[in-house]
Amino acid sequence: xxxxxxxxxxxxxxxASMQIMRLHNLWVKIEENVNKGNxxxxxxxxxxxxxxxxxxxNHLKEPEKTIKExxxxxxxxxxxxxxxxxxxxxxxxxxxxxxxxxxxKVGKGGIFxxxxxxxxx
Length: 121
Known about the structure:
Helix content is 78%, strand content 0%. The chain is mainly alpha-helical.
């Protein structure tokens, strides 16, 4: 039984590490595309970030609220894309910031604080 628990624990931590690496790679690609002005690719990569974080949303206190906020921001991006590049850029930036904050909230970013490890540093 103890061996099974170790396997499960190892798998959980390995997947978390792999997800953080995937997220990092996506954010790097996003910055490259933002700097080149590739708004469509930026939009697609933000969708990939959402797919990576979506399962973690279920662990938040109010997952429905976060899902709804993402849908509204995505809709805003889609509407803005049909208007001016400035509006599209601003809408993408809003969703970008939302996803960065979400990544932190679910503990896959740089500012997550685990209260159970408060005294550990």
